[in-house]
Amino acid sequence: MKKDKIKIAINDIEKMRRTHIQWAEYFEKYPDIEKKYIETGEWDNAKEHRNLVKQYDNVLNILKFLLGGRI
Fold this sequence. Notes:
elongated, 0% strand, mainly alpha
């Protein structure tokens, strides 16, 4: 995979990571709204969004390691 394609993938991962951080912060700030979203069965709660952020962090760390620390 070319370096520019890897950078695009990294940018996408970072964007998704930021999105999950924003949802987690929003739900932590407004637990009553979080409850309504959860009741639909189609949304994750703040804790799950935080867990997803950790998974994105792990992927980014692996990519950084594989690229020799250059991301």
